[in-house]
Amino acid sequence: MESLYCREVQKRASIEWVIHLIITRMTTKSSPRKPGRPRAASFNRRDRAVDYRAAGAPAPPKFRPIHTRRAFEEICERIREQLALGQLKPGDKLPPERDLAQQLGVSRNVLREALRSLEMAGVLRLQKGVKGGAFIREGDTSRMNVVMRDMLSLGTISVRELSEARIDVLDLVVRLACSHARQGDFNALEQNIERTELATREGRLLDRVECSREFYRLLAVATGNKVIAMILDSVTEIHMRFVYAKVVSSGVAMPRLAEKRRQFLTALRARDVATATRSMRSHLESVQRMLEQDPGAMSLRVALAEMQPGMPR
């Protein structure tokens, strides 16, 4: 009887010991490890600054390593940062891809993605070949046109808002042009009106639309303000699509256009702000009424469509 009792006690002790071992192992595996100490950044001879001033050469831009999950966007910001600081200018070439990736601490694939994005944004020009690389581009004002079309397609702005804004912007453009236009600007506008007259006589109405597009571009240049010129160009680009579509569908164009242009130019040469502004606004309102007679000509589809080359003129 005693031996049976002893065996039972030993069996229970063994079971308790096994349970103890299992719990101990589970506790050990589930416990988090203590974070290790961060490694100190190592600096070798390649990382040491070079005194480019002593060599008589401008110091190349330096890029800090990327420490973010959105490395692609951060790279774009770093390059734009160098542009804002004047370290990079139009025509400059970025460091070789391998060196730039090493400076930023990113893979070359991530760097290429960022460079392609900047190319699409009009900041960089990527050139292949022995003398290729990534070059800083001159400012491309046509990017505003793309932004405006994107806002239309997303519903951020409406066609009517665009038309109203164009009239108000042109009020400002005419005022500035009356103050700042030079003889060269007057001559360019005069030549444009002559081409408009010729296109009208020959019945080339679509060529006349292109003359109108150029007329507003020349007028914007006469303001001497690049920001105003960009804004006018972006709203005019889409508006002229409506005019283009109207002419294609109906063959109808604004009557006495060249005559109205000459009256406007006369007021502009005289620096007569009131007359020039009134003449321009009257013309724009007439064009707006003509377009509104055909709702299809002012549809969003027309604004976002690409004008087809080779259409009859």
Describe it.
The chain is mainly α and 313 residues long. The chain has 2 domains: 62-136, Winged helix-like DNA-binding domain superfamily/Winged helix DNA-binding domain (Arc Repressor Mutant, subunit A), CATH 1.10.10; 143-304, Up-down Bundle (Four Helix Bundle (Hemerythrin (Met), subunit A)). It is built from 13 helices and 2 strands; from the N terminus they run H-H-H-H-H-E-E-H-H-H-H-H-H-H-H. It has a two-stranded antiparallel ribbon. A hairpin with a 5-residue loop joins strand 1 (124-127) and strand 2. The relative contact order is 0.08.
CATH architecture descriptor of the largest domain = Up-down Bundle
**What string gives the helices and strands in order?**
HHHHHEEHHHHHHHH
Indicate the structural class. mainly alpha
What can be said about the biggest beta sheet?
2 strands, antiparallel
Question: What is the fold-level CATH name, i.e. the topology of the largest domain?
Answer: Four Helix Bundle (Hemerythrin (Met), subunit A)
How far is the first residue's CA from the last residue's CA?
Answer: 119 Å
User: Averaged pLDDT, please?
Assistant: 79
| Number of strand segments | 2
**Uncertain residue segments:** 27-34, 40-50, 308-313
Tally of distinct domains? 2
Helix content: 55-70%
**Helical region count?**
13
